[in-house]
Amino acid sequence: MIRPVFEPESLPVESTGADLPPVVPERLTPDGLRARFELRLPWDPEPQEARVTSIRDPREAAVLIPLAIRPSGLNVLLTQRADNLSNHAGQISFPGGSREPEDASPVAAALREAHEEVNLDPSRVEVLGALPDYLTGTGFRVTPVVGLVHEPFSVVADSLEVAEIFEVPLNFLMNPAHHEVRLLRWEGGERRFFAMPYPPTGDGGVGVHHFIWGATAGMLRNFYRFLRA
User: Fold this and answer.
1) Which of 22, 97, 119, 183 has an alpha carbon 20 to 30 Å from 161's alpha carbon atom?
2) Which one-letter DSSP state was computed for residue 87?
3) SS3 34
4) Across residues 39-55, what is the average pLDDT?
């Protein structure tokens, strides 16, 4: 099937998660997250489309979901990918990439990629665990590794891969009222995907607008489901 070319932000919002409960504030703290990962409660990830789950031999990859510990709470560190990249150019993403032969584990791959892309010192990252692998339409099986980033730390973008580094409050992203389902229709069928505009649409245009969607939003949605279990 030919992959359609489209502007995701221009597509209609089919639904939101406004009727779902947000994550309780106690779980959005370092201690709350540590306790949740230790519990290993059963939960179901968000279902993925059949066209994605049928991909044969996806390439192994890993991303770091870096949770920066700030005085105001936890922030998710995100990047905007450079426009010249062959995959997901210009999109919002977590630091990460393909797993290399020298990477002993997905955790090692995520930490290495975060160091290469944004110069994040691995010694400042407290790895909490990983979410289930996420399949992308571009043929990657991505392991999302969740880690607390302890101050002091600094980040610097690798200009060949990263156009911008920014932070979004975790409590914003874990509020399902901010989770949109956008709908794409084209002659080959339909596609639905999650989007989490930040700041949200209709906020009066305050601040720089970032449109979080696709695999990044899908992994954040799984993080929400994990924390709600």
Assistant:
1) 183
2) S
3) helix
4) 85
